[in-house]
Amino acid sequence: MEEMLQLNGQKSIIIVSGANMRGWSERMINDELQIVRNAGVVQIQREISDSINIQDFKMLRFYQRSYVRREKKIMNKELDDVADPSDAFLLEEMGELA
Fold this sequence. Notes:
The chain contains 4 helices and 2 strands; from the N terminus they run ββαααα. The chain is mostly helical.
């Protein structure tokens, strides 16, 4: 369980079960994506399947672009820094976002 403090002082709690790659669906359903959309912080974790992490990242990237246009350059830099440079698969998927 992670607990993060948002800028407005509210707490975001993220609970992720499981420490392996089994049991994850390939895609998240809309209810699950809504939770991610409303989270103050989303942590991409290696024990979650790449398909779920990439789906979250793409969805967050879409909302980031549509919500904060005036800070686009700064926010893109922060999102681009999320990936581990040694993870070729994730970098390849992220390349589709440009």
